[in-house]
Amino acid sequence: MSIVVTVRIPDVDMDRVREVEKTHAEQIEKMKDALKRHGCISHRRLYREGEILDIDEWESEEGLRAFLEEMGPTIQELAKARGTGKPFDTIWQVY
């Protein structure tokens, strides 16, 4: 059964986020490859003033955990470069 993960990221400056995505394009591509490899079905990023909301559907929680194990250091590096606040994540079961 698939799961959906929502991640709210506070303290966001979207201009800085876009710049970091350009300057760290290689890491972003590695992350996209890892998302697919570990069973991410879909990824959607929404934003509003000062906040990002990522919505990811995964084939399984095990795939999510494997992705985080592999890409955790890269995710932390990108967050540091963006200067964003601590993310809040929630795992949802698909009904």
List the helices and strands and how they pair.
Layout: E1 3-10, H1 14-23, H2 25-37, E2 40-48, E3 51-58, H3 61-82, E4 88-93
Antiparallel strand pairs: 1-3, 1-4, 2-3
**Spatial sequence of strands, sheet with the most strands:** 2-3-1-4
Structural class category: alpha+beta
**First-last Cα distance:** 9 Å
Can you tell me the residue ranges where pLDDT is under 50 for at least 5 consecutive residues? none
Mean pLDDT: 96
Q: In percent, how helical is the residue content?
A: 40-55%
Backbone shape:
globular
Instruction: Summarize the helix and strand pattern as letters.
Output: EHHEEHE
Total beta-strand segments: 4
- Main β-sheet description: 4 strands, antiparallel
Strand-residue proportion: 25-35%
Individual helix count: 3
Computed over alpha carbons, the radius of gyration is: 13 Å
Protein name: ABM domain-containing protein
Organism: Psychromarinibacter sediminicola
In words, what does this structure look like?
The chain is an alpha+beta fold and 95 residues long. Helices cover 47% and strands 33% of the residues. The chain contains 3 helices and 4 strands. It is globular, with a radius of gyration of 13 Å. It starts with a strand and ends with a strand. This is ABM domain-containing protein.
Provide a compact summary of the structure.
The chain is built from 3 helices and 4 strands, in the order βααββαβ.
Question: Which characteristics define this entry?
Answer:
3 helices; 4-stranded antiparallel β-sheet; 95 residues; single chain; globular; alpha+beta
